[in-house]
Design brief:
Elements: H1 2-30, H2 35-56, H3 62-81, H4 86-105, H5 117-121, E1 128-134, E2 139-144, E3 165-170, E4 174-179, H6 198-202, E5 207-211, H7 217-224, E6 229-234, H8 237-246, E7 260-264, H9 267-273, E8 278-283, H10 289-293, H11 307-315, E9 317-328, H12 335-349, E10 359-363, E11 367-373, H13 379-391, E12 395-398, H14 417-427, H15 430-436, H16 460-467, H17 477-498, H18 514-543, H19 546-568, H20 575-605
Parallel strand pairs: 5-6, 5-8, 6-7, 8-9
Antiparallel strand pairs: 1-2, 2-3, 3-4, 9-11, 10-11, 10-12
């Protein structure tokens, strides 16, 4: 039934696009001698919309943005009615006015999935939303409830209390808490009972870089462990403002402390642009368990978890510095294995010897934490790590001098999957392991930054045979949805675009060239979309914000495509030469971008 819902959503989206295309097509029919100008105006407006919507979202809520778009549509209706009779214009104006009044009286309200974290949290006693903000980056809801406590992967051995918290939800799911520890550092003892606290037991008063500071949990952890210098990186300025200003008293003004330096930036971008080195670089849990498990991010680019990113992190460590990365534990295991493989290959690319001695990997019942050290871990550090894990009932996955008897003891899995995988990655036939594994665990790269894509089509028969319908939670639904959407789009396109052609009156002028015209525009559209998507992916690494990358790339493509259409008829060369020249220039420019674009971006980032 969910596939039918997907089809229904797709058809709902089809309606406005179909009507918009009809407006453009009618304009072409009305002004055939000025098609290039009509197309120019259309693309110019589309490009302006791609950028304008980003600016508007900084000032209007999501509902207000929708209303603004509706008003633009009605304004275009009124403009069109000027060419009609007075009676028609009055009727169109009256209908538009009634519709606007309806939306003013009954504004649309977003319906949040009942399976998202915000919906579940609001079921807690006395839970309520105390603030809501939106921007191009995310929709933020601040939730207050007496029972809210958030400490991902907290040890089952911890018997103390967690201070009061309020929850910040990003897009109704990813949760980051603001903690009121009442200016008493001893109230933060619970933070030492998480897997990500391990590096503080191996380092003495480290200078710390935290990527994904959020509501400040990891900043508090660094303060609890007496870090004298903390660089906190947060991508969303609204979260920083909430913690620093609006809920500054509740947070005990942690973002205003002299040892805490908060920067609004994207983590990978900050690393590429800074010249500083740190004793500890910590990448926090940046997503919710529910979203991660459901594969929501399967098709999302993430430049934080690529081989090149790991290389950059390691280069920005001091000689004895540690990189600490925490991820959710999933069953069957996949995130942690891919993380470990990425670290190993990054160390290999940096020509570091005796790689097994540079890694420590532990897990709790919910989270796993990987430590990567620029120099080998010392025997005393390994002993401390084992002692830390034993006291908190954490399982060792990998560390130097680890015996098989020491793994999978407390949060036991049917097999020591993580340990066996680390052995194969470090000492076995790695390529064969990647190929035969149930999920895609090969490291992501900047050219293919899809760390969260784990699903393999060839594993589907095995999942169906061994798990039946239980296999459903173990696939990346973002990937599956894209495939089914593509299939639906192809079927609907055949029905709405190709099938009607058989019923049109034949025109002699087009009869001999129908197939060539169809193929020409088909490949033109495919090529345009492929280049556009590739540029969006590349510009995400440069601009750091996927939303900004999409807006900039789409606006640029549409804007300059419009100008190309405008000047096409003014070119004084033959028709065939126009297409040939344009095709050659596209190929030349694409090759130049392929060779030099990364260097250009790196130059401007630094």
């Amino acid at each position: 039934s969910q596939y039918l819902y997907l089809l229904a959503y797709y058809l709902v989206l089809f309606i406005p696009f179909f009507l918009g295309a009809s407006c453009i097509g009618l304009s072409f029919l009305k002004f055939p001698e000025g098609i290039n100008k009509v197309y120019f105006y259309n693309l110019l407006g589309s490009g302006g919309g791609a950028l304008g919507i980003i600016l508007i979202m900084y000032f209007l809520s999501l509902q207000e943005v929708l209303f603004f778009i509706i008003m633009l549509s009605f304004f275009s209706v009124i403009l069109s009615s000027f060419n009609l009779s007075l009676k028609s214009s009055i009727i169109m104006g009256f209908i538009s006015g009634i519709c606007v009044l309806f939306f003013l009286l009954y504004p649309p309200e977003p319906r949040i999935s009942p399976y998202k974290g915000l919906s579940i949290t609001l079921k807690l006693p006395e839970a309520k939303i105390i603030k809501e903000e939106s921007s191009p980056l995310s929709l933020i809801d601040v939730v207050e409830a007496p029972s809210i406590r958030c400490a991902p992967g907290l040890s089952l051995a911890y018997k103390g209390k967690i201070p009061p918290q309020i929850a910040i939800f990003l897009d109704a799911d990813s949760l980051t808490p603001i903690t009121n520890f009442q200016n008493d550092i001893s109230n933060l003892r619970y933070l030492d009972y998480r897997t990500c606290a391990l590096p503080y037991h191996l380092l003495n008063e480290p200078h710390v870089l935290i990527i994904g500071a959020g509501g400040g949990s990891e900043v508090l952890s660094a303060l609890y462990h007496r870090a004298p210098y903390i660089e906190a990186i947060e991508v969303n300025p609204q979260i920083v403002k909430l913690v620093k200003e609006e809920y500054g008293d509740f947070s005990n003004h942690i973002y205003s402390l002299p040892e805490v330096h908060v920067r609004v930036a994207e983590g990978r971008g900050f690393i590429e642009s800074t010249s500083g080195n740190f004793d500890l670089i910590q990448i926090t849990l940046l997503d919710s368990f529910a979203a991660s498990s459901a594969g929501v991010y399967a098709l999302s680019e993430s430049y934080l978890y690529t081989i090149e990113a790991f290389e950059s992190y390691i280069k920005h460590l001091t000689e004895k510095g540690i990189l600490c990365i925490t991820r959710w534990v999933k069953t069957p295991p996949r995130d942690g294995i891919k993380l470990f493989a990425t670290a190993v290959e990054a160390l290999e690319n940096l020509k570091i010897e005796n790689i097994p001695s540079h890694l420590i990997f532990i897990r709790s019942w919910a989270t796993s934490t990987l430590l990567i050290k620029r120099s080998p871990f010392t025997p005393s550090q390994v002993h401390t790590a084992k002692k830390f894990a034993k006291k908190r009932l954490f399982d060792l996955i990998w560390c130097p001098s680890l015996n098989p008897e020491e793994v999978n003891k407390y949060n036991a899995l049917p097999k020591a999957f993580y340990y066996e995988a680390s052995q194969k990655i470090l000492f076995g036939d790695r390529d064969s392991f990647y190929q035969n594994h149930l999920f895609t665990v090969e490291p992501a790269t900047d050219n293919s930054p899809y760390f969260f894509r784990f699903f393999k089509w060839k594993s589907l028969p095995y999942l169906l045979n061994t798990m039946g319908r239980e296999w459903i939670p173990f696939v990346e639904w973002g990937y599956i949805i894209l495939v089914f959407t593509l299939i639906q789009a192809i079927i609907i396109s055949i029905f709405l675009i190709i099938f009607p052609l058989f019923f049109l009156k034949k025109r002699r002028i087009f009869a001999p060239h129908k197939l060539s015209i169809f193929l020409y525009f088909l490949f033109l559209g495919i090529g345009y979309m492929f280049i556009e998507i590739s540029f969006i992916q590349k510009f995400t690494l440069f601009l750091f914000y996927p939303t900004y990358a999409v807006a900039v790339v789409m606006a640029a493509f549409l804007f300059f495509s419009g100008w190309g259409s405008y000047f096409a008829q003014k070119m004084k060369i033959g028709r065939l030469d126009k297409v040939t020249l344009a095709s050659i220039m596209i190929i030349v420019i694409s090759i130049a971008y392929l060779i030099y674009l990364d260097d250009i971006f790196l130059h401007f980032i630094q």
